[in-house]
Design goal:
Layout (H helix, E strand, L loop, with lengths): L1 H12 L5 H5 L4 H5 L3 E5 L2 H13 L3 E6 L4 H9 L3 E5 L3 H15 L2 E2 L10 H21 L7 E5 L4 H14 L5 E7 L4 H8 L23 H10 L2 E5 L3 H11 L15 H10 L2 H6 L8 E3 L8 H8 L3 H10 L1
Helix pairs in contact: 4-5, 7-8, 8-10, 11-12
The chain binds pyridoxal-5'-phosphate.
The site of pyridoxal-5'-phosphate has 19 residues, from α4 and α8.
Length: 320
Amino acid sequence: MLRQFRARVAAETGAAPSTGELLAGRFAEIAGSLTVCCATDGNHGRSVAWGARTFGLPCVIYLHEQVSAGREAAIVRLGAEVRRVGGTYDDSVHRAAGDAAKNGWTVVSDTSYEGYRQIPRDVMAGYAVMAAEALAQWGAAPPPSHVFLQAGVGGLAAAVCGYLWQTLGAARPRVVVVEPETAACLFASAAEGKAATIGGDLDTVMAGLAAGETSLVAWDLLRHGADDFMTLPDASAPLAMRLLAAGVDGDPPLVAGESAVAGLAALICVRRRPALAAALDLDAESRVLLFSTEGDTDPVLYRELVGRTADEVRAATSDS
Ligand SMILES: Cc1ncc(COP(=O)(O)O)c(C=O)c1O
């Protein structure tokens, strides 16, 4: 959002403004003319709405019919206009692109498609910060041997994979991409050897991962950088959420949402199946990196699946 806004101000005034100037509202008139939009399963659109509010940009977010009321409410609270679209996430991506072309809006999407690649690259650069922070915390210990990465369109997985590859080179971990079995477009891409699109209603409790069209930029990276592709049944997500909420092996409890736990759920699944563990070179010596990519982004659903609210889970943290 910052890059888009700065570029627009630079184009209109002839000078690139500082971030501070953009945040201070000095270019409110230009901000008002830069409408940003995107489609979302709930999380990316929420961050776009937050960024738009931060800089005072008008914002329109497209939600497909399966996005929960709780996720919609969170976006509305950030001041964005929400438009509901029939069909799947992919249908909402097409609608956002079409409306943006008609109205002269800027799509700020985490997925990329033919003719639209640069902004998703910036979004992916943002995701790579997670990997940078993880490696900084990892310190001097031998680097991770495996990383399990949950994927929707693949942007997040590709960004983390790319960062680890760039930073660790040949010592980079084995990259396992994890998707819900009903929305496994990257699994299909690996099978077909090209960025694939899958059909169906893509319905999954891991709502953030409910995508059927592979991001082209993500696939460019993952086709070389990912080692394995896995799918997961829906039932595995709530189990992993409850495990983290209870606190694992004396670790403090962790609030992690349905899509956040896909990597952990996949790891548990592999550890329980010796043949699969052997195929992935996973054993008791492995050092596995996982990312929890959301908290209770839908608080009502979180409570339904875990049996407690996020606050109750966190309160147990401070008691222990
Ligand atoms: C919580 C969560 N984790 C992971 C992802 C995967 O991101 P991507 O669609 O870039 O693969 C998403 C996507 O929105 C998400 O919401």
